User: Fold this.
Amino acid sequence: MKMSLAHRVLLLWIFTLIFLIMLVLKLDSKIQWNWFLIFLPVWTFDTILVLMLIVKMAGRCKPDLDPCEGEHSVKRRLWYLTALLLKLAFCLTLCSRLERLTEMWVSVVCVPLWALLGGALVELGHSVFHYRRE
Assistant:
């Protein structure tokens, strides 16, 4: 399952366009769909990314591969997987709040997003200062 950069960018643009069209139609009250259906293109793209990450991480478990060689790469891929799962949690809580399935504060809905942004800042700081030391 290897996709070139052009294919990934094209896929991202297509799913983003579909999501934005559906979102605008929902906000203009042209369609009366469920919020979970509106976010379906986002979840489809995230599912593709998670499957690609899992396949790449499983490829690192070959018996003839040196485990110390790609340790940094595995940690980075674990962070990417965690970030995608936090994004998924944010989308799920946001949809449940918009559908009024649960009555929770907006600050509680945003907790996965804040954790994702905090982790991104730590990853950015680590990558910037890691290269400065070398």
Remarks:
- The CA atoms of residues 41 and 128 lie 33 Å apart.
- The first helix runs from residue 5 to 27.
- The mean pLDDT is 86.
- Helices lie at 5-27, 35-38, 40-59, 71-98, 106-109, 111-133.
